[in-house]
Every structure is written in structure tokens, then in C-alpha cells.
Amino acid sequence: MVEVSEKKFLREGVDPRSAYRGEHLVSQYTKSMLRGGGLPSTEEVIRELHTRLFRPLVSEDTKSILGSYRSTNAYIIGSGAEIVPYWQLGLKMRSFGEELDRKLKNLKYGASNIVSILETAALAHYDLVIIHPFSDGNGRIARRMM
User: Fold this and answer.
1) What residues contact 122, with CB distance under 8 A and at least 6 apart?
2) What is the CATH number of the domain that holds 21?
3) What pTM, to 2 d.p., does this model score?
């Protein structure tokens, strides 16, 4: 369970179809990136995924939180993991993005390198969850990245 002392930004009584629309927007974005060839930086992709995933779920007065890093500290209760303090998120996410971009450029694709591919995906997932940049949706974004 994640405890974040930030204003809850999801609308009350959200229709499950709204969540599906967010997933659909993320899927469209991912497919268009893959077709386009030139990928934006990892940090840009993560922020855009968050924006598209949650756009249908938030109220008008909280839309500014979409793609924005959290502004309070977060704790994963019972995990013992040290989550990055909110004031370090910009630097930590930039560093994470640059490192992952470098790894992806040097990654050789194919069946013979499946262990390297899976290791890179798993470590990226773990790192993003530990950084925990958003007040909600970190696990969903991390799974999408894999």
C-alpha cells in the first residue's frame, strides 16, 4: 500500500470505462511512437504515459497534476524501501531517463540476448517504482514501460 499525503486527484465515482479510455490513449501513444521511429527521451515518455492514462479520470480542477511529479514524500508501507524525496525527483528522473536511454541504445535485440532484455526491463520497472515520481499510477506506468 502506498501512502501519499497529497490531495486525491481522481474524480469520485469514476466510471470504469474512463479507466479503459486512459488505457486506450496510452496504447495509441505507444503504437504511434513505435511506428514513428524516433523515440522521445524516456523521461518525456513516462510523463506522457501518465498524462494519457489519467486524463479521463481526473476532474477539471486537478488536470495540472497530469504528468507532474508529486509534491510530497511517499512511503510504501511495509516494504522498507526508501522512496526518493519529492524535492529530488526532477534530478533523479532525468538521471534515470538518461541511463535507461543509454542502456536501450546499446541493447542488442533478439533471442540470443533475451536475458539482457528482460534484465533491463525488470531493473527499469524496479527503479521507476522506487523513484515513485507520481502521486498515483507509478506501478501502472512501470508495467507499461516493460
Assistant:
1) 146
2) 1.10.3290.10
3) 0.73
